[in-house]
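Problem statement: downstream parser choked on a complex file, so we are re-checking the raw output for the gibberellin A4 run. The parser issue turned out to be on our end (a line-ending mismatch), but while we're here, posting the original submission so the record is complete.
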Amino acid sequence: PPPPPTATITDRFSCPGEADMNAPRPQIPLVDLSTPDAKSLIIKACEDFGFFKVVNHGVPSRLFYELEAEASAFFSLHPSLKEAAAPPSPFGYGNKWIGRNGDIGQVEYLLLSADSHFQNFPLTAGKFCSAMKEYISAVRSMACDILELMADGLKIQPKETLSKLLMDEQSDSVFRINHYPPCLENQSYDDDQEEGQLIRFGEHTDPQIISVLRSNSTPGLQISLKDGTWITVPPDQDSFFINVGDSLQVMTNGRFKSVRHRVVTNGRESRLSTIYFGGPPLSEKIAPLPSLLMKGKESSLYKEFTWFEYKSSAYNSRLADNRLENFQHV
Ligand code: GA4
């Protein structure tokens, strides 16, 4: 049986570290992938936020609307049918429990390997699987374009240094679909209650290299700024949102920051999000890229480790933990 929860889903969103309401709120960085300044905007966004929004990404909207329709149909099935696809460890349907170490959220989800052919998954046939495959392949290719712009902007050669990790046959990438159903009457809050918000997916950073998120038009995503204040990301169903993951923070020797994020909703409308987590092969060594250590002038902030070692340690941690701490040089 899973360990007892240590937080409750009805925890009210109090605002420790909430920014001064009168202070100007920083805008989420926006990158138009079709413009020549995309490269420099991406670098700046990754340094300042570890997060940005992407437009003109070239992924046909048909792909995400088809996937959304299939995913909604799946989540509206009778619980016993969804449970047939459980547990989520390593891959399958999950409900409330996040990871294996006692974290919970008011969310149901599907967790799949983005690199397999969904073997061991009960819904391997049919439109849902083909929609996922098509979507994952388009999103992976966009993530690779972005990683190549990053490499170029950071003067890393060859420019495929980062993208090839996602294209590798052994790449350990994950695909996740999160569904936040409307809350029961007594769990949602009135408009006039300022703090009427529920934390649905607790704060965390993503362990991989890069994450690509797309959601429907229900708000919920928040990111943490460097000073610890939270800002709400206005939803945009036609755009993608990019997160720097822990591994990319290490490869850039801390120049890019993996972004802390969480999902907070008022529980009224249902939110659906799909996330591709681009990870390297398990045997890949994760370390600052030599060309970024400025010809030996800058020392590495991190101990060298393989993705397997980092992932194992991450999967044994709690959601909100600072997972890179154990891998930092003191
Ligand atoms: C966060 C990013 C991805 O959703 C995920 C998550 C994973 C899980 O849900 O099983 C983890 C979480 C994520 C990081 C710490 C561990 C593992 C839950 C958790 C408490 C699939 C991933 O790769 O790491």
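For whoever reads this later: Residues 4-17, 190-194 have pLDDT under 50 and may be disordered.
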